[in-house]
Write a structure and sequence with these properties.
Layout (H helix, E strand, L loop, with lengths): L1 E6 L7 E2 L6 E2 L10 H12 L3 E6 H4 L3 H11 L3 E5 L5 H14 L4 E5 L1 H5 L1 H7 L5 E3 L6 H10 L10 E5 L2 E4 L27 E4 L2 E4 L5 E4 L2 E2 L16 E2 L2 H13 L4 E4 L8 H13 L5 E7 L5 H9 L2 E9 L3 H7 L5 H14 L3 E8 L6 H13 L4 E6 L1 E2 L4 H8 L5 H6 L5 E2 L9 H17 L1 H13 L1 H9 L1 H15 L1
Parallel strand pairs: 1-4, 1-5, 5-6, 6-7, 12-15, 15-16, 16-17, 17-18, 18-19
Antiparallel strand pairs: 2-3, 7-8, 8-9, 10-11, 13-14, 20-21
Length: 486
């Protein structure tokens, strides 16, 4: 059975630094491979299915070109991984495929399909099936049922139509033992990635070597009310399994990794063991990771640095005790500064803090307190987001129960993000945007920040390498900035 998996194109980058276009998030168009879809494609390949993967966020094929590919290769199933930022392109292409090739089965997966399966099936008749959750295992069972012409009605997480009715169970499958996962075959990808993002009218890359993301765990042990990860959902790969994959990739020329775990420090002993194994195997690599600020300590940071960690994304969110308690985030405000100082002391090169404003009852004074605190930290950059209502989280359910989040709004915005300030907030969008914009501007204009950045550029081999690789893009951006200033 021939299967085509498609990661649809995202229309634009969500990490924009152009002086006249500001948005603050992490997705940068085509800069990093779709690892989740790659796991599924590899699993299918290992089960001897004829599978191909188009990462159209990177390849940027036209709909005509993809339809020509389908005409030539004649897949029986076309699967889409749909996100909020890519669903429009997914629907447009899927509809054309179904119109031209009605016998092809259209399969959807990914966060959007998992969160709103019935709504999508009802709205888009060209979708034949939805596989919810982590589908590495369930997709094999699903395909076997199709091949044997058996009912799929008891396949976990399947959504389908039967006699005009949409059938969906409540279960969202997860892979309990991540050590059973296959190693993603990067050879299925048709291009190399460099973790690049736009800088004005130019582009710079964050990676300084051949790059790929790597997964060492899924879920998170915390129970923050705004997060999609369920309580006690954290599942790790063994340190040996992780480092064996890194070693194999290193032999293939990969030298820069991003550990895409929600919280690399969820189990400090496991994280330290991963570092120990990287050191023991003498793997000369660069890598970066993200941690919640309550899960680090100096011993861990020092081992991370020795093992090649050059970048740390530190989740802080707020400095207000009441706000942190409301989020159910296990972090004391004074601990955040301590973690930054310890990470800096360990020698980790680039430290980015993440912050969030716009809680339902957060005042302007409280939001400003968090942002002023951010400017006091010895960090190299910050990401400030407005609180987003994520489907079926504790916060989402609370807003529904209190009547602030209505079904009409959900139906109208099912394929878009809904910000907290749109349903219940003391602060308006304009107030939040003003606070965020002014903080970014003030952060990078501080003399102490500029001096430290220059000194670190001079003394850090990693930073010098990054500047050398991106010199043309940086010079063009600085030229644009000077032109704007004068």
């Amino acid at each position: 059975m021939k299967i085509l998996l498609i990661n649809p194109a995202c229309e634009k980058s969500w990490f924009e630094f152009h002086p006249k276009k500001k948005s603050y998030s992490f997705h940068t168009t085509g800069s990093s491979p779709p690892l989740g879809l790659l796991y599924i494609a590899t699993n299918l390949k290992d089960q001897e299915y004829n599978v191909d993967l188009i990462d159209n966020d990177a390849e940027r094929l036209s709909e005509r070109e993809i339809l020509e590919y389908i005409e030539k290769n004649k897949p029986k199933i076309v699967g889409f991984s749909a996100l909020v930022g890519t669903s429009e392109n997914a629907h447009s292409l899927a509809k054309k495929i179904k119109e031209k090739y009605p016998k092809i089965l259209i399969l959807y997966g990914g966060p959007l399909a998992t969160n709103f399966p019935k709504k999508l099936m009802k709205k888009y008749e060209f979708i034949d099936y939805i596989l919810k959750g982590e589908a590495e295992e369930t997709i094999i069972t699903f395909l076997e049922r199709l091949e044997n012409k058996e009912s799929v009605n008891n396949v976990n997480g399947i959504v389908y139509r039967e006699k005009g009715e949409i059938i969906a169970d409540e279960e969202v499958p997860i892979v309990k033992d991540l050590n059973t996962l296959v190693t993603p075959k990067r050879s299925l990808l048709k291009k190399e990635y460099d973790l690049s993002f736009p800088l004005g009218n130019s582009e710079v890359r964050l990676s300084v070597d051949k790059y790929t993301p790597i997964l060492t765990s899924r879920g998170c042990p915390n129970n923050c009310n705004f997060c999609l990860s369920e309580k006690n959902s954290w599942r790790p790969r063994s340190p040996e399994d992780v480092v064996n994959e890194i070693e194999k990739l290193h032999k293939k020329g990969y030298g820069h990794f991003f550990f895409i775990d929600n919280n690399f420090g969820a189990d400090k002993e496991r994280a330290k063991k991963i570092c120990d194994l990287i050191i023991e195997k003498d793997l000369d690599i660069y890598w970066c990771a993200q941690l919640s600020a309550n899960t680090g300590n100096y011993e861990l940071f020092a081992k991370m640095k020795k093992a090649g960690c050059e970048g740390l994304l530190l989740g802080i969110e707020s400095v207000n005790r009441d706000i942190l308690d409301y989020y159910d985030k296990p972090l004391k405000p004074d601990l955040a500064k301590k973690m930054v100082d310890l990470a800096r002391k360990s020698g980790i090169n680039v430290i980015i803090g993440t912050f969030m404003i716009g809680a339902p009852d957060e005042t302007k004074k409280e939001a400003k307190k968090t942002l002023e605190f951010a400017k006091e930290l010895d960090i190299d950059g910050l990401v400030i987001s407005k609180l987003t209502l994520k489907p079926h989280t504790t916060l989402w359910n609370e807003m529904k129960e209190k009547g602030y989040l209505t079904e009409d709004l959900i139906d109208d915005r099912v394929e878009e993000t809904i910000k907290q300030h749109e349903v219940k907030s003391r602060l308006s969008k304009e107030q939040l945007d003003s606070l965020i914009d002014s903080t970014y501007s003030e952060f990078i204009k501080r003399p102490s920040f500029i001096i430290k950045t220059i000194k670190r550029m001079i003394t850090s081999e990693f930073r010098r390498k990054w500047v050398y690789i991106n010199s043309s893009g940086i010079l063009l951006y600085l030229k644009e900035k000077l032109k704007d200033m004068f």
